[in-house]
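A sample copied in:

***
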Amino acid sequence: MADVTIGQLNQGTPDKNSAVIPYSDGTTTLRTAPSGIVAASPGCLLQVKQAIRTSVYSLINGNTWEDVPNITVTITPRTLSSKFLLSWTAGASTSLRWGQGTVGLLLKFVRTMNNVSEDVGVGDSRGGDVKRCTAGCLMVDWDYIANISGVYLDSPTISNLTTPITYKMQAFKDGTTYDQMLGGSYRTSYVGDASCPTILTIQEIAG
């Protein structure tokens, strides 16, 4: 981008000044050269993508991470310095009955960019059988919904603006004795039983 000089500031409508910022290609549209993408001030919201699952998903395998179907968001960045705000909510439940103990359900998010996948927003490795995750809950009875929600700001290193970034939700089922699921209460025969959506929202924020 060429330097802006005082001589390039033009008087506009009364009591207002305007500035034309020229580029080497002769255009005067404010852009993040050479991409042609409209520039934005840091912190501005550039785009929003969302994945919603309204049906119940029962985790299949115990003691292993598995993808939550349909909770995947693909977003193509608009600036090389963009950050991505992940926000999510999910309602977990179990077939466990009151007094039989407790079970846990964990969530984490995986970012794939340039064919490389890695966990984002997870805790430190502490050895033993500790699972690195983003969030989790403890469940004690089949008619309760344990809410798992939160936000995380991801700052990937973006090399170009043509490669999409994919975020997906994974869940971990604690043990194999009891059923566990996302999407509402396990029991469906009581007036207080409910269904709730599983949601992942990605907001691109100008860096």
